[in-house]
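does this look right to u?? iron/sulfur cluster version
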Amino acid sequence: MQITIKIFRYNPEKDKKPRYESYKLEAVETDRVLDLLEKVKGYQDGTLSFRRSCAHGICGSDAMRINGFNRLACKTLVRDTGAKITVEPILGLKVIKDLIVDMEPFFENFRSVIPYFVNDEPEPAQERLQSPEQRERFDDTTKCILCACCTTSCPSFWANEQYLGPAAIVNAHRFIFDSRDRAAAERLKILNDIFGIHRCHTIFNCTLACPREIQVTKAIGEVKKAIVTGSLE
Amino acid sequence: MGLKRNVGLIEGLRYQGKGPMLTYILHRIGGLAIVIFVAVHILSSYFGGNIGIFFNTFYMHWAFQIFIFFCALFHAINGLRIVILDLWPKLIEHQREAIWVEWAVFLPIYAIAVFVIARTALGG
Ligand code: HEM
Ligand code: HEM
Ligand code: SF4
Ligand code: SF4
Ligand code: FES
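got this back:
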């Protein structure tokens, strides 16, 4: 089938303003939008810039707005987009070139929630044991690949990039509800800030956008409740 | 080097957030409309005279009542959905169904209200 793909273009060395450029190409239903971008770059216009690495939905580098909605280009099939496709950078971050945005504010927010395991108690002789139920408690939020689909779909983040955003909260949740971790109280304090969790207005854009199907707003809701009740259960 | 943050009201509204984002937008519109509505309401009663009569006539017009009732009822029911999900985060997994339930509660009540308002307006 013949596809028309309209791509947001911006070259900081040449363009004053961003523009859109359309490309026509042959594709099959099972092609992914990432394949189309590779074809455009390889055969039609080598100046097109975008990020990608694994091409298998794991590295989280090719989040973009496809037909107005955040997705990973490598997980979006032509079958689901139709023959007319518009591709634009994710919202709320600075565009560096074409589909590439400056992810630093996103990662800064991520780093600020202590997104790693903390436990200074003396090490036991063997592993720090955990029951299957205790592991299950935070299973959903371990799946995050830091693609930023969620945070850049969030109207509260659009309004202010200092809002920590769903991805940071998901990664805080991952450790807050880990029975072996000891820094939950500290993380809850960080999230209880004016640019923290209370900027979430349960809009659910994040949950719909997450390519890993993480229940993002649920995780946020659990953290909100933990802050209000002071209890992790 | 590079563009500024690439988002504003228009870009935001273009985002295809679908049902949940729509309820969010309607909630803001409703909340704001009620604030303005009640402020004008109280001020016009306070100042009275011609202005007061003007606004009271305006407020009693059936088209305005249908509009403001939409704002108030939607805001209230949507607000209750948010409060319930906040209190029981486990339910958030079923947020899609929650929004269906919300519309299922909203639409009949609103339909009856519109019917009553219209009948009163037409029947005198
Ligand atoms: C279509 C809907 C409504 C109509 C037609 C209406 C009509 C009226 C009328 C005729 C009065 C008496 C004014 C006077 O005596 O000067 C009044 C008073 C008042 N209404 Fe409403 N109303 C409506 C909805 C609401 C809503 C939704 C609220 C609050 C959320 C509200 C809050 C008030 C208050 C606070 C007063 C007392 C204000 C005062 O006396 O200064 N009304 N309304
Ligand atoms: C049955 C009554 C009401 C309920 C259950 C209710 C519930 C709520 C809830 C839960 C929110 C927060 C939504 C969020 O965080 O996304 C909210 C926001 C808001 N409410 Fe209400 N509300 C009610 C009546 C009113 C009235 C009477 C007014 C105006 C005088 C009002 C004005 C607003 C405004 C302006 C916001 C937006 C705040 C923001 O943008 O963050 N509400 N409401
Ligand atoms: S649920 Fe909260 S974090 Fe997710 S998009 Fe909405 S406001 Fe943003
Ligand atoms: S929560 Fe989902 S959408 Fe957000 S960064 Fe992680 S994987 Fe991406
Ligand atoms: S290229 Fe790695 S997630 Fe899409």
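The longest helix of chain A spans residues 216-229. idk if thats expected tbh
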